Amino acid sequence: MIRRRLIVTGRVQNVFYRAWFADQARSLGLDGWIRNRADGSVEAVVQGSQEMIETIVARAHQGSPASRVADVTVHDDAPAETLDGFAPRPTL
Fold first, then answer.
1. What is the pTM of this model?
2. What are the tens digits of pLDDT across the range 12-56?
3. Contact yes or no for 20/29 (Cβ under 8 A)
4. Which of 5, 47, 50, 54 is most buried, judged by most C-beta within 10 A?
5. Which positions are catalytic?
């Protein structure tokens, strides 16, 4: 089980990116969360197997049909909280 933090930039707010990403993460059996950030980016924390994390990162680059992803930055994330399921969070 690994955990990664993703920062997604581009046209990723107001284009259903968060809902699309949450559906993708749930379909892969990942735990975590996603939220908009005040700077216009989207932040997500995902936890699961290496294979499923690699899959969600690849999908994050594609994005929802209306989005235009410019970049996805991936960082290791230390478990500071227990993650169970996948849900959106309020804007930071």
1. 0.92
2. 999 999 999 999 999 999 999 999 999 999 999 999 999 999 999
3. no
4. 47
5. 18, 36
